[in-house]
Structure formats: structure tokens, C-alpha cells
Write a structure and sequence with these properties.
Largest sheet: 8 strands, mixed
Shape: elongated
Structural class: alpha/beta
Radius of gyration: 24 Å
Helix content: 25-40%
Oligomer: single chain
Number of helices: 15
CATH topology of the largest domain: Aminopeptidase
Bound molecules: ligand BES, manganese (II) ion, zinc ion
Length: about 475
């Protein structure tokens, strides 16, 4: 979708011109008064389409209700524009203009809503889906739209990567992608180097697969960084469960178990364009979890990079093992804050559904700030507890800990496990996107498939 900023939407030659109307307000736009019928009240989500019969260069007007003007925010604009764009897609039109009149500072969410709704993963379809090809935005703040363009690009990139089958998005492929991101320095460690670094937990997970593991360290730097942070993404290119193999139905979507790393790659891609004044390390421990003669086994005892030992209770609790070493590595980088993002537990999905991601950490203020950035960018987080009892359940008779506890409270248990690998003086937050990363049916502005969970929140956190 080509995006252009224009001055006057009433002069735009396009298939559909989208305008908004507020409830209980006479004029949102003179065009509403001219074209919409009197009974179009502008209630939240209400849509009205009419032919202009050549009274305007635009062929049709689509008016969308925004509800009460006092309630307007980014989420309302993004979702209503997405709804309008879906209607345009159903009408099979190609060029669309949007004019929000006086609300010029909502160009960003309007663009995002349009871009999210216009997305389809149809790379492997011989017959491509219909798409809006050109989008004109009138009366918008240039700078905010430019920033939203970058966010929309990263989001699309992350969704594409997570939608790719495991045969395409291999650990080596993720490494190659990381190495090609403009303005980012990337180091990739192979199996030999990973061994030397003492990442025994990560290596164990990778053992059963023919795909060789890659530890990816990306760095965005600037002259005088105000802060140094690290962001880590779970990079399980496929999670079969390992020897504790998953049932077929649970394995179906496990190509998405690298959604956390797709998010990190998307965010790193945005940084060179947005140029924040902080140093950002992007870290991915990429591998596959497969059953085979060389696979790690229940009962194995692993040593992580910080020297702590782990008894393997279940080979399907593999994400936390890869993250354990990634967290140890990140904490050695002289960073103030570390965030990891992972499709970590089915338990989190059971608790919060596909609606919200779980969030935990070692500093409530830090966790709250991320929840806030999420809210502002349209992503929901719900804080889960970090109580000692969850950790007690993971005590092992033969090692420092087991990699799982009881069946219950699994998201918090996983959080407590990760905490063992975080240095105390580092602020740390863990985002569990198991439920939110991949949709089996559409939800709000999103269609089926990968959502790019975390991209918007992390970019907002880094920029703001
Ligand atoms: N990748 C899965 C978690 C997951 C489940 C993500 C559903 C997305 C949708 C993770 O590696 C896993 O298998 N977790 C186990 C942990 C258990 C063995 C303690 C789970 O949640 O069942
Ligand atoms: Mn698993
Ligand atoms: Zn997994």
C-alpha cells in the first residue's frame, strides 16, 4: 500500500473517501452534511456508503461513526478506520483517501488501522487477495505519520515472518535476516561458540534438530546513549514438544513459536529509521525443538550460562531453557533494563485468551510503564503474580531446579523460572504472548494468523 499525504481530500481522485462523524455533533465535516442521510448518527462503528455521482472527484464517500467526540483516542481511530478499510476491501476498491478533518494528530493510528486491515499473508497463494493499493491521508501531522509508517512496516514484517512455515523461517534464516538489517550491527554465534559461552540450556533444546542453532546478537547504537537496554525474543522456529511430543492439534500452530523473535527483528528494523537516543541490544537464541535420537531427554541435567543447573522435567518446556541463557547473556551487557517476549505458556493463553498478553517482572514500576505503553499503542497486558510458591514447586532433588512445576499456574511458574537467570540490579520484564501472537480467527482489526504482538509496545517504549 502506497501512502501519500495530501492537502485537500475533497479534491482527491479516489475510489472511496473515508470521513468520520461524531455522535451529537452537527459538523464533523461539511461532506457528512452534504452526503450522509439525516439518520446517520455517527454512533461508534456505524458505517454509511454513498455514491458522489461526480459531485466530487472521489467516487464514493464512506462515513464512519466515531461515537462521542470526547471519547476519541488512538484505539478508536485505529479500529474504526480498520473497519472502514475492510468495507472498502469488500467493495474491491483500490484507492482510498481518509480525511479526519480537525483531528490531524490521529493520522498515525488511522494509517496503522488501514495497514493492519489491508494485510494478508498470501505469499504462497497463486491467486492473491484483493488489496487497497493507494492510501491518501489528508490533514495529518507529517511527522507522526512518518513514524506510524515505520511502525506499520515493522508490524507487517513481523507478521510475515511469524506466518512463514518453519521450513522457511529456520534459525539460519533468522540469523541471515538479522545480518541484513540496515544500520544494525549483528553478531551470530554458531554451535561451537554457543558451547564456549556455556549456554548448556539453549544447546540442549537444539540437540534433537537437524537445523543448527544460532545465537543472534544485534546492536543499535548512537553517539551518547541516554540508556542501554536489551530486548530478547523467543526464537523456537518449530516446537514439536521434543520427546515429550505434543498432540497433533497443539503442534499445528507451532511454527509461530518464534513470534517473539519476529517481534525483536521488526523492532530492530525500525530503530535505524527512528533514531532513538538509546542503545538497544536485540537478542535471539534461535533453534528447533525436535524429537530424535540426539534429542535432550527428561531427566537430563543442564548447566546454564550463569552456572545454575536444571533438571529436565518436560522437554516441551523448552522456551524457558533457551531464554535462560539469553537472559544471562543480556545481563552481562551493561544494560539497565531487559525485556523478553515469548510464546511461552499454554497456561497464559488459558488465563487471558487471545485478548491480552501476560506480563511479569522484578520491578512493578517498570512493569506498569510497559503496560502503559501497550495501552497507548493498542496492545493489552495483564500482570501475573511472581510468588515464591510457584518457584518452590520447581525444586529438584538432583539439580538447582526443574524446568516445570505443577500443571497449575504455569505462566507464573515460567516467570519464576526465568527470574533465576536475571541479575538483581537489572530491571526485567517478561511478556508472555502465547495467546496473542497468533489468531485462529479474526479479532478486531486483525485477521487470522500472526499479529506481530509486542512490536508496537516495544517501539513506543523505546521511542518514548
Ligand atoms: N510454545 C509453547 C507454549 C504455547 C502454547 C504457545 C500454545 C502458543 C500456544 C511452550 O513451549 C510449551 O510447550 N509450553 C508448555 C509448558 C509445559 C510443558 C510446562 C505448555 O504450556 O503446555
Ligand atoms: Mn514447548
Ligand atoms: Zn515453545
Amino acid at each position: 500500500m502506497d501512502i501519500k499525504i495530501i492537502d485537500d481530500a475533497s479534491k482527491a481522485k479516489c475510489d472511496v473517501l473515508i470521513i468520520n462523524k461524531f455522535e451529537n455533533k452537527q459538523t464533523s465535516s461539511e461532506l457528512v452534511n452534504r452526503f450522509a442521510p439525516e439518520n446517520f448518527e455517527g454512533k461508534q462503528g456505524q458505517i454509511f456508503v454513498i455514491h458522489t455521482h461526480d459531485q466530487l472527484p472521489a467516487q464514493r464517500i464512506l462515513a464512519v461513526g466515531f461515537g462521542e467526540e470526547k471519547d476519541i483516542d488512538n484505539n478508536i481511530v485505529r479500529e474504526n478506520i480498520a473497519k472502514a478499510i475492510k468495507k472498502c476491501l469488500a467493495m474491491k476498491v483500490k484507492t482510498v483517501a481518509i480525511d479526519l478533518k480537525t483531528h490531524f494528530n490521529y493520522g498515525g493510528p488511522a494509517l496503522l488501522g488501514a495497514s493492519i486491515a489491508n494485510y494478508h499473508f498470501d505469499k504462497y497463494k497463486t491467486k492473491k487477495e484483493h488489496r487497497i493499493e493507494e492510501l491518501y491521508l489528508a490533514n495529518v501531522d507529517n511527522e507522526l505519520v512518518e513514524r506510524a509508517k515505520v511502525v506499520a512496516e515493522s508490524l507487517k514484517f513481523a507478521r510475515n515472518l511469524a506466518n512463514e512455515p518453519a521450513a522457511f523461517a529456520t534459525p539460519s534464516k533468522l540469523a541471515q535476516i538479522a545480518q541484513n538489517i540496515e544500520g544494525i550491527q549483528t553478531e551470530v554465534f554458531d554451535e561451537e561458540k554457543i558451547k564456549t559461552l556455556g549456554m548448556g540450556a539453549f544447546l540442549a533444546v537444539a540437540k534433537g534438530s537437524n537445523e543448527t542453532p544460532k545465537f543472534i546478537h544485534m546492536k543499535y547504537s548512537c553517539p551518547n546513549p541516554r540508556k542501554k537496554i536489551a530486548i530478547i525474543g523467543k526464537g523456537l522456529c518449530f516446537d514439536s514438544g521434543g520427546l515429550d511430543i505434543k498432540p497433533a492439534s497443539s503442534m499445528l500452530t507451532m511454527k509461530d513459536d518464534m513470534s517473539g523473535s519476529a517481534c525483536i527483528l521488526g523492532v530492530m528494523k525500525a530503530l535505524n529509521k527512528l533514531k532513538p537516543e538509546i542503545e538497544v541490544h536485540g537478542i535471539i537464541a534461535a533453534c528447533e525443538n525436535m524429537p530424535s535420537g540426539s534429542a535432550y531427554k527428561p531427566g537430563d541435567i543442564l548447566t546454564a550460562m550463569n552456572g545454575k543447573t536444571i533438571e529436565v522435567d518436560n522437554t516441551d518446556a523448552e522456551g524457558r531453557l533457551t531464554l535462560a541463557d539469553a537472559l544471562c547473556y543480556a545481563c552481562k551487557l551493561d544494560v539497565e533494563e531487559v525485556i523478553d517476549i515469548a510464546t511461552l505458556t499454554g497456561a497464559c493463553m488459558v488465563a487471558l485468551g487471545t485478548v491480552a498478553s501476560g506480563i511479569m517482572g522484578n520491578n512493578d514500576e517498570f512493569v506498569s510503564s510497559i503496560i502503559k505503553y501497550g495501552k497507548e499503542s493498542g496492545e493489552k497486558y495483564w500482570q501475573l503474580p511472581m510468588w515464591q510458591e510457584y518457584r518452590d514447586n520447581m525444586d529438584s532433588d538432583v539439580a538447582d531446579m526443574k524446568n516445570t512445576g505443577t500443571r497449575y499456574g504455569g505462566a507464573s511458574a515460567a516467570g519464576m523460572f526465568l527470574k533465576e537467570f536475571v541479575t538483581d540490579n537489572v530491571k526485567w520484564a517478561h511478556l508472555d504472548i502465547a495467546g496473542t501472537a497468533f489468531l485462529e480467527k479474526g479479532q478486531r482489526e486483525f485477521g487470522k494468523g500472526a499479529t506481530g504482538a509486542g512490536v508496537r509496545t516495544l517501539i513506543k517504549y523505546i521511542i518514548d
